[in-house]
Amino acid sequence: MINAMRYLKNVVTLELDESKCKGCGRCEEVCPRAVLRLNNGKASIIDRDACIECGACSRNCPFEAMTVSAGVGCAYAVIRGTLKGTAPDCSCSDKYDCC
Amino acid sequence: MKEQKKGPAWINGWTSAKTGFVPIINTNLTFQDKLGSFRVRWGIDRMRYKVDPGLYAAGKPDTDSPVLVTANYKLSFDTLRKNLHHINAWVLVLDTKGVNVWCAAGKGTFGTEEVVRQIRAVNLFFVVRHRTIILPQLAAPGVAAHEVTHMTGFKVVYGPVRAADLPLFLENGLKADRAMRTVSFSLSERLAVTPIEFVNAWKIALAAFLFVFLSSYPLGDMFSWSTFFRFLPYAGAIFIGCFFVPALLPWIPGRSLAFKGWLVCIVAVIIYCLFNGNKEMENIVYLLILPAISSFLALNYTGATPYTSLSGVKKEMKFAMPFIGFATVSGIVLHIIGLWRSI
Lengths: 99, 343
Description:
The complex is a heterodimer. Chain A is α+β, with helices and mostly antiparallel strands. Chain A contains three helices and four strands. The longest helix of chain A has 10 residues, at 75-84. The radius of gyration of chain A is 16 Å and the shape is elongated. Chain A starts with 14 loop residues before the first strand and ends in a 15-residue tail after the last helix. Chain B is mostly helical. Chain B has two domains: 11-181, Rossmann fold, CATH 3.40.50.11600; 187-342, no CATH class. In chain B, 55% of the residues lie in helices and 10% in strands. Chain B has helices spanning 2-5, 31-41, 74-81, 101-107, 112-121, 124-127, 145-152, 166-171, 178-181, 187-192, 194-200, 202-215, 225-248, 257-276, 280-300, 310-342; strands at 11-17, 20-25, 54-58, 67-70, 89-93, 132-135, 155-158. The termini of chain B are far apart. Chains A and B meet through helix 1, helix 2 and helix 3 of A and helix 4, helix 9 and helix 16 of B.
């Protein structure tokens, strides 16, 4: 079953500017959550709540039609970022043993 | 690192490319490889489990063979090579600082620049005649395919999410269906990442133990079995947060991970309280602290799942963190009051 598990509703920052989309289909190819699909030569968001904000679509859109505030959905990274006063931090140096 | 000097055991021999000799990788994992995977799953020397970046060969590749790109975390590299039986391909290993494909892509180490750098470093232009490289799909958050093409002339094709689908993907002429393109989170995948949750929970376990140990002082039985038995409910809460919640994840009601952790534990604690015959106060303390512990651990499991978003995590933390903090502190206060009364 595709996308059996869902996270919170109506939180993701994914946006699609259809006027910029040229229908190349790259976003559909890279999305690991089947959020996007090409409909009549244009990308469309078919499963918004499944988005995990990984940023693959926006990074790979040659026309900058996709925008998302990308990041890693990891509470530990958010906590560490808060403690250090930075953005969510999942940077791994040899010091931190995380992913 | 010592192993690297005499040449890693997973190199079978050498093949020649236009650019020189290239090591041939073994597509069978040995006991040593499996032991290595087991160790890093438990967090032992995880950040040093690397292979040298560069070009490798699977089978007997020639100038028309596909080029597969991967990360230099050995667990990622092993997952790729064990799926390359009877396949002739070039394997280009990037320097992702020993981090897996998806996490490295998120950080940008598996990124456009590194792909371009390695293509140039190994002189891929002379290794193959075609101009296509196959990247794992989960590298896409870090790599802008069109920029790689612009800078090197190599077209980027994203392969399947799981290396196990690679043989079929190659056979089908580089076509992946929707299932191959979608991340899964099966029971075995959920459990594979639980050992590290236990390892990361050691601070909570230690704090809980000290809490139980010190509060045994006024009771005068610090060094007795009863101290150990009083620690068991806390160990249970950790077990629920680190193991039960991940294992039962899809079947636990609610969407918030913190809620799922809290719910499973509170049900367990209520059942426990009905039968343990403790004083009321003691059980209220359990009802406050134990679900807070497993809620916190379940919240931390968000980082191990492939279906949570940063916006979602922030949203649930806004509610969950104050709740967890309040429950824990009031539990501790009530516990101290209870001790005070019992002396």
